[in-house]
């Protein structure tokens, strides 16, 4: 399993040989009376063999840029200026009929959500064949070519699969089909719009690897649109950073990641938690504020309101994208263009970018503080919990067999401690967390809150005890009732504590202060808030019941990169002040690393490894943990030469888990590779202690590094 | 992209309950205004009928079955009675029927639809009952009720009442089912909010949206049920005029006085148009 | 597929069972003695006694119900005590007329509905779309009987182009029969067709936003191809559902339309039997109507399942 491709950063060929040349592209959306500039004066080149990353947050215009190249902007969007030169002609000037001939054959596209990108009522074979025949392939030869394509993108059993429908494929396999369709007519440029955002890390690793292999084999140029700096570091040779509809920085991946020349890029890189983070216990240098609304961009540089380098000029005039520093690195920043270094390493820069951030605490002290906390009382303990998510329909003659999404899981959360729970979607981590708070019924085992078992209690008691375990949801848009003001949402929770009138009012104010929101916002409805602000409201509501434990279900994964650090800092601060225990559920290993004292790794309803964060990340024992860590993209250039362990296949269904070790069907050290290891199929490995606090459920722990 | 507008709207209506504010916003659109005005005129005419036409609907004249004229815009019927007068009095019957039956039907339907909140089994049972009512296509239910109760206002009222309930009930149940898994409803449960409160605070306001729209659609259907049954002779019984009765009479003299039909039909269509426009406007408003 | 149908079976049977109870209960709910009610106006004691004997009114209601339903299964639909004819022959005489009307109407609903829906769902020129929208809204809002009255005035009174009263069997004399049939069928079909069109239009608008349409565009597919192969094909399910739902309305509307166009069909039979309180006829008609509606519903679901590989291949 060695990495086949180390992305070569070819020396810049002269720009005359560019495959695609985008110049001054502008795309607008008509909204009401006004016009929103989604893409504003964007220029870049893609050369043969390039992998260009276009990176940005929501609303930065990155996806609209990709669609503009294909001339696939939907109404009310409209390309209003610039040129897109491809193969010696300006695509924007072609008649639609001519453009249609270019789509798919010259430039092809891969979409974000493979679930939605395939027509549900056509077999995948027909969908590939359609792409072929549209560009002149004979019907007779098309099927053969379709089979070839399926083999090429790594779909096993192509002869059978070709006649199946999309719903019979897993997410990763669907994305392979979409790629096969894109490759059908030998395009020279592939535009991939967030191709792995909807996928799990181990599947993401498979798809990224496939793209790199195809680039190598077919000599494709690829443009990847992404929000993930890690994906950029892993895949790309060049990168364009977008913010507020403009490219603010451009250069080779090495240049941009090592020495960012735009304050936004620099601040973003500094604010991201990392797998190898040394800043544990310290607040992240978060970027204040939130990304600009494309319909209300500030007059000058759109980043100026959030920028700590901003000067007067920045607020009035838009800086041009000019060469700064090395050859080929461009930055649209007046300050950087004067030669000021904007990438001051934030660890040594205690400027409180975040108003709520406390003084940085030395690492050692925090760890000690946490350790002592761990030894105190256990506030939440889960023992042998099983949750049946099988259909509850009872037929006359049969009963559906149980499906245990959570199967004999035990874990404990102490006051003042964060337990990170990681795993891919479908591993049961959300089911587990929801059954702890009583949303999903429990099929077996016990949930003890403050030493009392809530699974065997009457309703009234449960309500009293349960209030000490509260929940923060992933999607801050869905977790607030759009018809109720913040005041009403908070009052709902506070009144359950018996608060009325002035007392309730005072407590609402205190909660708003605590989560860093202004009191005047109390009478607003949720739609008036940004995602980050809504998540603060969600946290305030959970705190209203004075919980001892918060269950945080992916609380930052729906937020923009630049907002995540703010919420992470808030959570850390609250924990310090209130001594809360956290059960932090996430698929992003870096965030978990930053926040957690202890970590539990879940696979198919079981915990396969636990230990302190340092142990699990530093010396993983279970091969699944190793693979997860290895698959997580990190935003550093140094990491790109490392060997990656890419897991094969998909997560099996919990309705029919493999015998013995549940991981054996994908395990890189199991019977797949070592057929003599029959024990893996015969015996279910127990979660046995390895080192101090670390335990792994594997017959051959610590073998894979 | 529209978040700026959203904020603007939020500021404008910050103090108002957003559910009410959204319904009201329907009447700021062109369709809403036209619909409401039209309905207003018709209701006003119906209410003021005894003042406008003090002679009552049974005043006979010497000539009969004339066409339209300035004195009698809709013409005269077979007994020389003014068709406009009869149409307006007929409108009174129709409006009294739908204003009595439809809101009650929607309310009962919603309550029954939410029965699942009390017990899963009860909810299922109610749905099966709704299946049966829906199995009786439209006027068939009316025919059954007339067969038992005899023709008249009561049979019409019950027909509209019962036939409207299943749709309202299904909408309420659908809202309940979909809201149950919404995160803000789960959040309320995790906080420990008692079930009835979750229902009234989070689920009913949501169910209301579709039911209010549906209610204005059923106003139209209610009028059609009256007219349909009266045309075949099973609805309102002459000499009492209703829009359906007038159409029935008009049909009998269609060759002698083709214009007889046009007046009552016009009123009927205007009434339907008013409610359709209001329904459209409301639908747009709640989905905004 | 079989499992899918088996899952539907209980609710279908329940609806039929409940309807049969209602139909059975009708004469017994009406005020007065059932036998007297059934005997019609001015009955003599002998008739009443005969009816009492024939229906077994002295037996328990459960037994009476069992007898009645048993009779239906054996093909014995009962007898009209007013007309002294078997219900089967009364229905047999009229079923053809209603069937002609229903079949042609349904055809119109499908053709006009799908045509209008696809046009509205793919029209790109502003005023064309507005016109189609308006036509749609108009026919959604106007009931079949008003359309019928309009057609009568237009084609039968102001212009004498088509017959508007009475009927001729299409099978006996196709050329003339069709002339009698066209207007009532059209009157019956336009409203439901507009509803179907609206369904298709909305669904197509939703489908057009789907990402698989983007994929098709990025393949280089033409607009027409996208409309039919991708957008309409995926909207077909809800089109079928819409048609299925409207069949019930067509049946119910037939009662009024038959009256307006003076067609002697089952609807007219139902109306006269209510007016003359001929319950034995009415009971069978009601149960029959529910049965037809339920069967149509079931057909819809089957077609729907066949169209969607996710249901067809599911489980």
UniProtKB/TrEMBL annotation, chain A:
It is a peripheral membrane protein. Its main location: membrane. It is found in: Cell membrane. Keywords: ATP-binding, Cell membrane, Membrane, Nucleotide-binding, Transport. One of its GO terms (biological process) is peptide transport. Residues 20-269, 391-629 form the ABC transporter domain. Belongs to the ABC transporter superfamily. This is Peptide/nickel transport system ATP-binding protein.
UniProtKB/TrEMBL annotation, chain B:
The keyword Cell membrane applies. One of its GO terms (biological process) is transmembrane transport. GO terms for cellular component: plasma membrane. Keywords: Cell membrane, Membrane, Transmembrane, Transmembrane helix, Transport. Residues 91-279 form the ABC transmembrane type-1 domain. Pfam families: BPD_transp_1. It is a multi-pass membrane protein. The keyword Cell membrane applies. The chain crosses the membrane at residues 32-53, 95-117, 129-148, 154-172, 211-237, 257-279. It is found in: Cell membrane. PANTHER family: D,D-DIPEPTIDE TRANSPORT SYSTEM PERMEASE PROTEIN DDPC-RELATED (PTHR43386:SF1), OLIGOPEPTIDE TRANSPORT SYSTEM PERMEASE PROTEIN APPC (PTHR43386). Belongs to the binding-protein-dependent transport system permease family. This is Peptide/nickel transport system permease protein. It comes from Kribbella caucasensis.
Automatic annotation (TrEMBL), chain C:
Keywords: Cell membrane, Membrane, Transmembrane, Transmembrane helix, Transport. One of its GO terms (biological process) is transmembrane transport. The keyword Metal-binding does not apply. PROSITE patterns: ABC_TM1. Residues 95-303 form the ABC transmembrane type-1 domain. Belongs to the binding-protein-dependent transport system permease family. The chain crosses the membrane at residues 12-30, 101-126, 138-158, 178-200, 239-261, 281-307. GO terms for cellular component: plasma membrane. Pfam families: BPD_transp_1, BPD_transp_1_N. It is a multi-pass membrane protein. The keyword Protease does not apply. This is Peptide/nickel transport system permease protein. The lineage of its organism: Bacteria, Bacillati, Actinomycetota, Actinomycetes, Propionibacteriales. It is found in: Cell membrane. Its main location: membrane. It comes from the Bacteria. Signal peptide: none annotated.
